[in-house]
Amino acid sequence: MKTINKEKIILASGSPRRKELMAQAGIDFKIHVADIDESKVDLCMAPENYVCLLSKIKAQAVAANYPDAWTIGADTIVAVDNTILGKPAGHRQAVTMLSRLSNREHSVFTAFTITKPNADDVVTRVVNTRVRFKKLSNDEINWYADTGEPYDKAGGYGIQGIGAFLVKEISGSYTNVVGLPVCELIDALASLGAISFNPNVS
C-alpha cells in the first residue's frame, strides 16, 4: 500500500484495533508497546484529563528510544456519570458494566499524544464520542459477557466486534470508539510534517 509518511512513526500501543486503523490510513509505522503501570494514574480525575495524561505518559516512555521518529501514545476510556469504567476483569464485572450502560448514553474518550525527543512541537488531542446503547435484556447481557469479548475492552464492549449489536446510536467519530480518532490524528500528523498527501513535499 502507498504510504503517506514523510518521517518515521512509532505507535506506542499493542492494540490490534489501533494497528489496523493506522494501517488502513496508509501510515507506515513500527510498534513499541509502552511499559507503564496505568494503575498509578488517579481514576478520580476528570475523564478528559485522565486519557490525556495517560497518552502523554505512554508517548514519552517510548519516544526516548527513537530520537528521529514521531511517537504516538493513545488511551481510550468509557465514562458514564463522569465515572471512568475500566476493563472488566471477569464475567460479573462485565455484566455490571453492561447493565449500567443499557438503554442510556455514555462517552468514549480517546486521547493521543504525538511527540519527538527534543522537538518543540508536541501535540495532545482528546476526542469525545457519545454512544447510546439499546435496552438490553439479561439474556443479551449474559450471552455477550460469555463471548469473552468484553474483557480487554474499555467499558466492556467492542463496537467493531460482536458488541456492535449493543449500540443503537453514536454521535461523533466512529474510529474514536474503536480506539483512535483517525481524522484528528491525520490532521495532527500533517501539521507536524510527519505525513503529507503531496508527493512533491520532501
Description:
This protein has 202 residues and is of the alpha/beta class. Helices cover 30% and strands 24% of the residues. It contains 6 helices and 7 strands, in the order βαβαββαββαβαα. It has helices at 16-24, 47-63, 91-101, 138-146, 174-178, 182-191, and strands at residues 8-11, 30-31, 69-80, 83-85, 105-115, 123-133, 167-171. α1 (16-24) links the parallel β1 (8-11) and β2. α3 (91-101) packs across α4 (138-146). It is globular and about 55 Å long.
Rg on CA atoms, Å: 17 Å
Mean pLDDT across residues: 94
Largest sheet: 7 strands, mixed
Distance between the amino and carboxyl termini = 19 Å
Number of domains: 1
| Portion in strands | 15-25%
Fold topology:
Elements: E1 8-11, H1 16-24, E2 30-31, H2 47-63, E3 69-80, E4 83-85, H3 91-101, E5 105-115, E6 123-133, H4 138-146, E7 167-171, H5 174-178, H6 182-191
Helix pairs in contact: 3-4
Please describe the structure with a list of short key phrases separated by commas or semicolons.
202 residues; Maf protein
Short recap of the structure:
The chain has 202 residues and is α/β, with parallel strands linked by helices. 30% of the residues lie in helices and 24% in strands. The chain has one domain (8-191): Maf protein (Alpha-Beta Complex), CATH 3.90.950.
